[in-house]
Design brief:
single chain; alpha/beta; six-stranded parallel β-sheet; 6 strands
Length: 230
């Protein structure tokens, strides 16, 4: 029997903030496995021109988690295709792991998604079928690309960086009407959007992603990285 938590999102690309968040959930709440679930098509987010393919995002995730036995990648949403809804994913995973779990599946969410959660498809049922774990960003987070840190509209997925102030995040959490647990460890202020911008502009980003992910991006020339960059 095991405790399982789900961390989903575009992972475009996966970065050290995602891994640190997953590790914090394991340490603070004693989870045996964190399942990284890349989305096929976000329901509330127009796909950007630099949105990497499902194949590339899966490959980068597998590079990122390969050395941690508690981390695993699931292609459940990509295999299903179409718009990725959290309820459908939890329902499918609940069936897959039936009889193997010691508790409900946990769902890891960024605090910036709380205001929109009631609008998610079957939000009430999600809150009943999963244990919600809320994570907040580090205080005084600094953008690596200046003012351009909000280039995409948040999706119905689990974010790793929020543009909300600390007080706004706290107010959202206090007014969140669903049972939940609060992660004490803050999220590292790293953004996939900023990494993509840094790649395109030739800025420093190497140590914001796991080493295998860095070399995958370079080899496959993702996100507009310069030819021959090392």
């Amino acid at each position: 029997m095991m405790k399982l938590a789900v961390l989903g999102g575009s992972f475009n690309p996966v970065h050290i903030g995602h891994l640190a968040l997953a590790d914090a959930v394991c340490v603070e709440f004693g989870f045996d496995k964190i399942l990284f679930v890349p989305t096929a098509e976000p329901p509330h987010k127009k796909l950007a021109p630099d949105f990497a393919s499902a194949k590339d995002r899966l490959a980068m995730l597998r590079c990122a988690v390969e050395k941690n036995p508690r981390f695993e990648v699931s292609d459940v949403e990509i295999a299903r295709g179409g718009v990725s809804y959290t309820f459908d994913t939890l329902e499918e995973l609940s069936k897959k792991y039936a009889g193997q779990l010691s508790a409900k599946i946990a769902l890891i969410m960024g605090s910036d998604l709380l205001a929109g959660f009631p609008l998610w498809r079957n939000a009430e049922q999600i809150a009943r079928m999963a244990d919600l774990i809320l994570a907040s960003r580090q205080k005084n987070a600094i953008s690596i690309v200046g003012a351009e840190k909000s280039l995409n509209v948040p999706s119905e997925k689990y974010a790793t960086v929020s543009d909300l102030s600390d007080d706004e995040q706290e107010n959202l959490r206090k007014n969140f009407a669903y049972p939940h647990k609060l992660l004490k460890t803050p999220i590292l202020p790293v953004s996939s959007t900023e990494i993509r911008v840094a790649c395109e502009r030739g800025m420093s980003w190497r140590y914001l992603v796991p080493d295998g992910v860095y070399w995958y991006i370079i080899k496959n020339k993702l996100y507009g990285v310069a030819d021959g960059l090392r």
